[in-house]
From TrEMBL:
PROSITE patterns (alphabetical): IG_LIKE
Extent of the signal sequence: none
Compositional bias ranges of the Polar residues kind: 11-20
Name of the protein described by the UniProt record: Ig-like domain-containing protein
Entry-linked Pfam families: Ig_2
Segments for region (Disordered): 1-21
Domain Ig-like residue range list: 1-71
Origin superkingdom: Eukaryota
Amino acid sequence: PSGELVRGDSVTLSCSSDSNPPAEISWFKGEKYVRSGRIYSISKISSDHSGEYKCRSRNKHGEKDSDAVILNVMC
C-alpha cells in the first residue's frame, strides 16, 4: 500500500504476474522507467524517491500496468 516513509528507511516493492507465457516486469516512477525485475528495493530512501510507482508486465499478448503506489518520504 501507499505510505509515508522517513528518510533513511528502506522499502521493497514487489510485482507478480500469472501470465502465459511469463511476462517481463518493468518498474516506472511516474512515466520514467527505473528498472526491470519482479522486486524493486530502495535502501536509504531520500526525498528524491518520493512519487508514484507502478509495475508493468508485458508478454507477446500485450501489457498491463499495476495500480500505482505512492511513496511520500518525510524529511
